[in-house]
Structures are given as C-alpha cells and as structure tokens.
Amino acid sequence: MSDHIESIVAEPKDLFEEELVSWIRNDSLHLILLATERCNFRCTYCYEDFAIGRMSAETIEGVKRLIERRVESLDSLSISWFGGEPLLARSVVEEVSEHVVRLARERPQLAYSGDMTTNGFLLDTAAVERLVQLGIQHYQVSLDGPEPLHNRTRIQGNGKGSFGQIWANLLAIRDGSTPANVLLRIHLTPENLPMMPDFLLCIRKTFLNDGRFRVLLKPVERLGGPNDTTMEVVPQETRPGILAHLESILVDGKEEGKGLFSAPDVCYASRPNSFVIRADGRIGKCTVALRDPANTIGNLLPDGSLDLDNDRLRPWLRGWASRDWETIGCPYATFPRTRQEEPTPEFS
Q1: pLDDT for the residue numbered 21
Q2: Which residue positions in the chain have pLDDT lower than 50?
Q3: pTM of the model
Q4: Are 81 and 93 in contact (CB under 8 A)?
Q5: Which pLDDT belongs to residue 9?
Q6: 283 lies in which domain range?
Q7: CATH, residue 197
Q8: 218 occurs within a structural domain
Q9: Total domain count, the chain
Q10: Which of 81, 128, 174, 320 is the most exposed, fewest CB within 10 Å of its CB?
C-alpha cells in the first residue's frame, strides 16, 4: 500500500509496449476530480446516485498536497473535472485550479491542461472567462437532439427542460473571443434518430465553422441506471451505418474529419498514471463504475500521498499484460469480477 505502482513491463520491444511506456511514465499525471457528486439534472439514462455531495475540505487539501508532491517531477499535468455537475461546486474547482496555476507559473517546464465535463447549464460567459483564466480550456457538453427531445431526457432537478439555457451558453461562447474549446457530445437514441439529420445540419451551420467546436456522436448506453430495463438503445449491429451517415452530414463540404472527435484507443481507466479522486477522497479508475467496490483502489491521504492497493489496481491494467487492445480500450466492459452496488455514505 503506497504511492508506488508496480512496473509491468521492462523495456519497450514493440509498438504496444511503447504505448504502455508512454502511459506509465512518472513525469505525466492525469487526475479526474469530482468536485461534487450532486447534480442539478436528472437525465433519464443517468447511472449516478448523487449520494455524495461537495468535496470535503480535507480532500481539497489532499489534492493540492498531491500535486505539490509530484510537480517537481512532472512534465505534464492534466486535470479533468467531472461530477455530478462540477459547476455546482465551482468554488472547489477554482480553489484547486488557482493552486495549480501558481505552481505551474513557477515551473515553465510543466505543461498543464484542464478540461471539464459539464451539462452546460451553468456555463455562462462569466464562468467560462474565469475558468479559462485558470487553465480549463476544454469542455464537453451533451445535447440529446432538438429542444423537444432534449427536454424529455436531460431534465433539470425541478422537472423543467434545459435546452434553452445550454444553447444560449454555447452561442455566447461562439460569439465571444474566449479560447474555450467545446466538444458537443450528441447522444443518439432510437427516438431521436429520425430528427438527427436536420439537427446535425443545424449544429454544423451554427458551430462547426468555428474551430473551437467539435462533435462526438455517441449512442446512449445502459450503464446501470434505474431506467435501464425500460430504456431503448440503438442496436449494436446498426450503429456503424448510422454513425457513418450522420457523420457525413457533419463533414459535408469540409476537410475530411474536420469538426469530428475520435475517441482515443486507450481508455483513461487503463492508464497507470490516471486516477479518479472522488469527493470523499476515495481513489478510483473509472467514472462509470462509481458504485462498484472494485473501482475503489485506495484513498487520498491528507498529506497528498496515495494509499493504493495494488491488488485492486492490477485488474484495471490487465490489458497491457495480455496485450489486448479491446481491454485497454475499456477495461470495465469485461472486468473479471461480479459487479455489485456499494452503499455510498452521505457526504455534505
């Protein structure tokens, strides 16, 4: 139980092992921070239970101390903000980010980048301008199709729709000069597919002439939420053709692939130098498997050290040892144990 991660390869002998070495290097660190696990939305396909609230003061200090402990040896630091909805705990985001910016300013060799997965409802002009100043320049915002369909699935906690405010915020980014890059994650369902061609044409005309915007088309999945048994998803066998057709609408008349986002071959959960730090200080590897005990691989201590259990960590890295690209692409899809829900303590 220590900061040390067991080495699982000696010298790079081929492309696969070279890829592994690039992710196991001690001079690179990726932290996925859950500023809060509460959310102002109740999306119909969501898998989270929102039981844990805002990141504790002890965990915030632990995160700052962790970065201090590692910063002298780092060439690259990447911080991803996740939730819940991270902008519900914007002060946590700002406190940690201000600390990182100060550390990075003193170390010109450090390449620091920040990104955020947000529902976009609170991503107004003032928020974007402030967060970009703190190095958070990349945002992922989801849309579920045109307004009537989006408002059926991406519902606010008060039962109201969310499309109008999100769209207004996206237009404000487009019309402003802040260097904020936005990945529009467009969810696909059997219900919204008939309207997708017209909606994507609107997306293309509205945003894709601005190089700060890109699109990821993503079929909705059953990820363990309460509506999984009744939720319809796009069949696996039809997805390649559907995606090819819809992507052609987005890139029509453009340079091939411009405006589209391609998911990386290696999932962050397979990367030895990537960790999820939850609001209560638990350390995980995956932002989907939040209720699975197997996803808890240790704890962040107040002094910034990582109390890791290598026996729990090892299954997340098994794709490297087996040389299996499918496993490193999503280690949780075929995780070698029975998934089960874990009672999550209340944390305010």
Answers
A1: 67
A2: 1-13, 338-348
A3: 0.89
A4: yes
A5: 40
A6: 15-329
A7: 3.20.20.70
A8: yes
A9: 1
A10: 174
